[in-house]
Design goal:
five-stranded mixed beta sheet; alpha+beta; Immunoglobulin-like; about 30% strand; 5 helices; single chain; about 475 residues; 22 strands; binds zinc ion; Collagenase (Catalytic Domain)
Length: about 475
């Protein structure tokens, strides 16, 4: 290809990149709360719907309020510091959302509407009963997420309208009503852990599939949440006062007044301004760990083969995603033999205690949470493995301290087979042994040397 032609091709390529970027910049990514790297955090993204060009600040205010509502609700509050919050601002031509019941139509970016499927407060974006094309709603959300933050965990479309409304599903939709934060937490129950509504009001046509917090089962021994129910609590459980603060089997859930049951008299999945019941909180907690894993970081990185000095202890440690009130248990083993540790999340190894070749260090981590009694998939456990070997090039550490007329040298007595050498240059072929200093193993060694004019460097070398 001749240079002129290459130049044209390059120019055309740059133009295409420019066009692509311009397309992507239709949405603007806003960082609202940062608690950790995107790759090891839960990333909550709020998308602006029905906010005009002048409403970006208002959107940020509403987005922070909704995020606080979600993350401030137990059990999310316990794991709040593992969440990041982002906003995606896109401009709508008009503010608000459609309200067919009032004859109101608004020209908005994601085409949101109240009164979906005939329910006033059901606020959705397409596809829905009035517009079956995903491209007009969820497709736009997904495209923006892929362009701006493909690592998102939960996406919520925040609708700039003060009327109460929302919907769950893969993408949350919530209004900027003053109860929106509460509603957002409820909808998050659907989106994050696939919890069901514990309402008794009918929703004709809704599939009769059980969720973690709804059931038709009335046999105690087969009840999903039986570990939360006291043996003295009758099954099914009456709505009467003595049982209202206990876990049991309360009739009325999943849009049925009869034949469907919920775990507690009240729960955020039934009524706003109530906490999630223990069964819902357990599901949400399991989902936090399923998404994040149990181990947040390790030092050194677990993937690498780790050389361990024969003379200096090497520390292996880990950090988990536990909440402050979770307990962390770790069983450490070296080549399948238990290791004693003083610190639960760290252990020290020294090369002299390792066998030849590769050694296997394992940390079997388990989180015990007051919120979890059933963990069939082992979401609260994780195994960390390091492959470690004795570093063949390791040398004893040498501490050097200058005194008035010379230097003091200190090294550990395990350094058998080494001798002390000095030099005038760091990169020298003229290291000279200090006479009479073959180092035997055992004890702690110290040497005082008068400082010769040009001797500046000291090392321990193998005999
Ligand atoms: Zn519940």
């Amino acid at each position: 290809m001749n240079p002129r032609r290459l130049q044209i091709v390059l120019y055309f390529h740059l133009l295409l990149v420019g066009l692509f970027r311009a397309g992507a910049s239709e949405g603007q990514l806003l960082v609202l709360v940062t608690n950790g790297p995107i790759s090891t955090s839960l990333n909550l993204v709020m998308l602006a719907e029905g906010y005009t060009r002048l409403d970006q600040e208002l959107f940020e205010t509403h987005a922070r309020r909704a995020a606080n509502g979600i993350l401030g609700a137990p059990p999310f509050s316990s794991y709040q510091r593992y969440f990041n919050v982002f906003g995606i601002f896109v401009e709508s031509r008009e503010a608000g959302a459609d309200k067919p019941q009032l004859g109101i139509q608004r020209d908005t970016y994601f085409n949101s509407t109240y009164r979906s499927f005939g329910i006033d407060r059901l606020l959705t974006i397409p596809p829905n009963d009035v517009n079956r094309s995903p491209e007009d709603g969820e497709g736009k959300v997904n495209r923006l997420l892929m362009q701006l933050i493909p690592e998102y965990d939960v996406a919520a479309v925040l609708v700039n309208d003060s009327d109460y409304g929302g919907s769950g599903g893969p993408i949350l939709v919530i209004s900027a009503n003053s109860a929106a934060a509460e509603l957002a937490a409820h909808e998050m129950g659907h989106s994050f852990a696939r919890l069901g509504d514990e309402y008794s009001d009918p929703f004709p046509g809704y599939p009769d599939i059980e969720e973690p917090n709804t059931t038709r089962e009335i046999r105690r021994e087969l009840l999903k949440w039986r570990k939360w129910v006291l043996a003295s609590t009758p099954i099914p459980t009456s709505d009467s006062l003595p049982f209202r603060n206990l876990l049991g089997l309360f009739e009325g859930a999943h849009y049925h007044a009869q034949g469907w049951y919920r775990p507690r008299y009240e729960c955020k999945m039934r009524r706003l301004n109530r906490p999630f019941c223990e069964v819902c909180a357990e599901s949400l907690t399991l989902n936090v760990f399923t998404r994040l894993g149990v181990v947040r970081s390790t030092a050194p990185l677990r993937s690498a083969a780790v050389p361990v000095s024969a003379f200096l202890p090497q520390r292996f440690s880990l950090e988990t995603f536990a909440a402050p009130d979770d307990a962390v248990h770790v069983e450490w083993t070296l080549n399948a033999s238990p290791l004693a540790t003083t610190d639960v999340t760290a252990v020290e190894l020294i090369g002299s205690s390792l066998g030849d070749g590769t050694n296997v260090l394992k940390a079997s981590v388990r989180i015990e949470s007051p919120r979890v009694r059933n963990d069939p998939a082992g979401a609260l456990g994780e195994l960390v493995v390091w492959h470690v070997f004795r570093d063949p090039h390791s040398r004893p550490p040498l501490q050097i301290r200058q005194t008035g007329d010379g230097v003091e040298l200190l090294w550990p007595g395990t350094a058998g087979g080494f001798r002390l050498e000095t030099s005038t240059e760091p990169q020298s072929s003229s290291w000279r042994q200090v006479p009479g200093t073959p180092l035997a193993a055992g004890g702690f060694w110290m040497l005082r040397l008068p400082l010769a004019d040009n001797v500046r460097f000291f090392r321990l070398n193998r005999e």
